[in-house]
Each structure stands twice: as C-alpha cells, then as structure tokens.
Design brief:
Number of helices: 5
Shape: elongated
Distance between the termini: 50 Å
Largest sheet: none
Order of helices and strands: HHHHH
Number of strands: 0
Structural class: mainly alpha
Number of domains: 2
Length: 131
C-alpha cells in the first residue's frame, strides 16, 4: 500500500507545521492550539504529539527570540510566587495546628505539598528560560 502524500497534501501539511510553529514561538499556550486542532478533527493524543514534536524542533533548530524567553520566564515567576504563597499558608496552618490541641493536619500538609511542587517546578522552568 502506497502512503506517499500528493504535492497538495505536502503543501497543506507544511503550511500547518509552519502555522503551528509560529503560534508556539509567539507564546500561545499548548492547550489552545490543541483545542483548535481537536475542533479541526484531530484526536487529542495526535494533536499533543504533533505540538510536542514541533516545539522540540523549534527549540532545537531555531533559538527563541529574547522576548519569548522573557515572557516564559515571567510566567514561571508567577508559578513560583503562587507556590510560595501556598507554602506560607501551609506553614501558618501547621503552626496553628501545633498550638491548637485538636486539629486536623490534612489541610496544611496539602498546602505544603502543593506549594512545594508548584514552587520548585516554577523555579526549574524559570531557570531554564531566564537569561
């Protein structure tokens, strides 16, 4: 069975790749691009795989513009701040729990875990994109 693409199909595929690569470089979120692909008839797994492949290719062969890197770093600073707020809240509730004799520790532990994960994930990604 011959699965070669016709010239028109190749041109259409190249246009799609260029369009998606441009949207990725401009900083558009993966979820909105994937949603657009799903509305065009793609299944979610194929759309995610396509976007990940294009993103890897863009990062590998073409250095991203400085503005794009700064925008990505700012997004991860926000994630770090949210994580820090949840960590602080978790610590505060934990201290209140130590003072109060009958206190459930589920909320502070959840806040601490969520805050730590969010903070360190944001820090790792921020350090990847900062300059």
């Amino acid at each position: 069975m011959n699965e070669e693409l016709t010239t028109d199909e190749q041109k259409t595929l190249e246009k799609l790749y260029k369009s998606l690569a441009h949207r990725i470089v401009q900083g558009e979120s993966k979820s909105s691009i994937i949603t657009d692909l799903i509305t065009q008839g793609w299944d979610s797994e194929s759309a995610l795989e396509l976007i990940n492949n294009i993103e890897e290719t863009v990062e590998e062969y073409e250095p991203p513009p400085e503005e794009w890197r700064r925008a990505k770093a700012r997004r991860y600073i926000a994630a770090m701040l949210i994580g820090a707020v949840f960590l602080a809240a978790g610590i505060a509730f934990f201290v209140i729990g130590i003072i109060s004799p009958e206190y459930e520790y589920i909320l502070p532990i959840g806040l601490l875990v969520f805050g730590a994960i969010n903070f360190f994930w944001g820090f790792g990604m921020w350090s990847k994109y900062r300059k």
